[in-house]
């Protein structure tokens, strides 16, 4: 009973100010349910995608089909995404204790990541401009 | 750990859904750009690691370095790489994209705002997007959309592309 009232209050709050970043039980419930469904589908059907990505696609689909409304999950999702880095503090801390792993390879890692990042940006931007140019040409 | 990261990955559907009209009108540019960017990300990382003398384990670890942390961790776990390497890779990619991304693209003569945003989001996930948002609304939203799509695509491609590349390189 208490839970229901809470959900209702939060849902109302979300409706009035959709930009408010507040964890609503309803939103969190939907996201967790979708995540678990994704996990079940991923393992059950032996999909090539991990469960949380199947969940991403599922959430997208239920939003498009209108099964779930954007207001129901938006505030919770924004809260999760804005604080994404918080979830990684445990692993980031682990980095300091694993410096031995890096001893022989850190130059190769750093150089590869930096150069590859610059290359990906260049390729993506040039391809997009090429497609845009072609499209304008056709129009 | 997985339970913490899961909801945040699922939540990535929200920005994609909100940008749906924009995605529809720019589908060909977004699709082509992100497909080429994601493939370049995987192939160039492995190739460069080979050039710089990286070990086999670094190649298994870094394929997902362009994508957002929760997805990248899943990719590295699946390939049997070192989690610390991918955390490092994702942070460096995000930093580079945010720090020099717009300047680098201007240097290359890129003028389209859509191209700028997609490139930064594809290569440097949220780290680059934080900077793209400051450039303008178009750059920011295209960069945000690229995070989700590039993540999905890399997660689909990497598990078969990486072993194939390693075999090709005789590693």
Kindly summarize this structure in a few lines:
The complex is a heterodimer of chains A (139) and B (171). Chain A has 139 residues and is mostly helical.
What does this 3D model show about the protein?
The complex is a heterodimer of chains A (139) and B (171). With 139 residues, chain A is mainly α. Chain A is built from seven helices and no strands. The longest helix of chain A is centred in the last third of the chain and has 33 residues, at 106-138. Chain B has helices at residues 2-11, 13-18, 20-25, 27-51, 56-62, 69-79, 83-107, 113-135, 137-168. The mean pLDDT of chain B is 92. Chain B is mainly alpha-helical and 171 residues long. The radius of gyration of chain B is 15 Å and the shape is globular. Chain B is built from nine helices and no strands. In chain B, helix 4 packs across helix 9 and helix 6 crosses helix 7 (83-107). The interface between A and B is large, with 70 and 85 residues.
Q: Would you tell me the structural class of the helices and strands of chain A?
A: mainly alpha
Instruction: Please outline the major beta sheet of chain B.
Output: none
Helix/strand class of chain B: mainly alpha
Whole-number radius of gyration of chain A? 21 Å
- Cα distance, first to last residue of chain B? 31 Å
Number of strands of chain B: 0
Distance between the termini of chain A: 59 Å
Order of helices and strands of chain B: HHHHHHHHH
Quaternary assembly? heterodimer
Rounded Rg of chain B: 15 Å
Low-confidence stretches of chain A: 1-19
Overall mean pLDDT of chain A: 82
Shape of chain B: globular
The number of distinct helices of chain B, counting runs of at least 4 residues, comes to 9
**Unreliable segments of chain B (pLDDT under 50, ≥5 consecutive)?**
none
Along the chain, the helix and strand elements of chain A come as HHHHHHH
- How can the largest sheet of chain A be summarized? none
Mean pLDDT of chain B: 92
């Amino acid at each position: 009973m208490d839970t229901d009232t809470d959900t209702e209050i939060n849902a109302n709050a979300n409706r009035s100010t959709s930009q408010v970043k507040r964890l609503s039980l309803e939103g969190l419930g939907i996201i967790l349910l979708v995540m678990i469904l994704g996990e079940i589908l991923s393992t059950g059907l032996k999909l090539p995608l991990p469960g949380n990505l199947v969940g991403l696609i599922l959430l997208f689909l239920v939003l498009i089909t209108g099964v779930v409304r954007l207001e129901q999950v938006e505030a919770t999702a924004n809260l999760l995404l804005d604080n994404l880095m918080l979830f990684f503090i445990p692993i980031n801390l682990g980095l300091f204790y694993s410096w031995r792993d890096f001893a022989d390879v850190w130059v190769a890692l750093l150089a590869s990541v930096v150069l590859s990042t610059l290359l990906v940006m260049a390729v993506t931007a040039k391809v997009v401009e090429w497609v845009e140019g072609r499209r304008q040409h056709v129009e | 750990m997985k339970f913490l990261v899961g909801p945040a990955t699922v939540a990535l559907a929200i920005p994609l859904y909100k940008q749906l009209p924009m995605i529809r009108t720019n589908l060909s540019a977004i699709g082509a750009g992100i497909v080429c960017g994601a493939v370049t990300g995987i192939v160039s990382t492995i190739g460069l690691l080979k050039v710089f003398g990286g070990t086999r384990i670094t190649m298994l670890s870094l394929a997902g370095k362009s994508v957002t942390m929760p997805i990248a961790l899943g990719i590295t776990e699946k390939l049997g790489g070192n989690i610390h390497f991918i955390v490092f890779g994702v942070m460096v990619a995000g930093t580079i994209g945010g720090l020099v991304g717009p300047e680098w693209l201007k240097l290359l003569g890129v003028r389209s705002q859509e191209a700028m945003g997609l490139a930064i989001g594809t290569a440097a996930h949220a780290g680059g997007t934080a900077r793209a948002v400051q450039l303008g609304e178009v750059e920011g939203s295209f960069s945000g959309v690229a995070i989700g799509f590039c993540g999905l695509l890399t997660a689909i491609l990497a598990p078969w592309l990486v072993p194939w590349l390693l075999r090709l390189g005789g590693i």
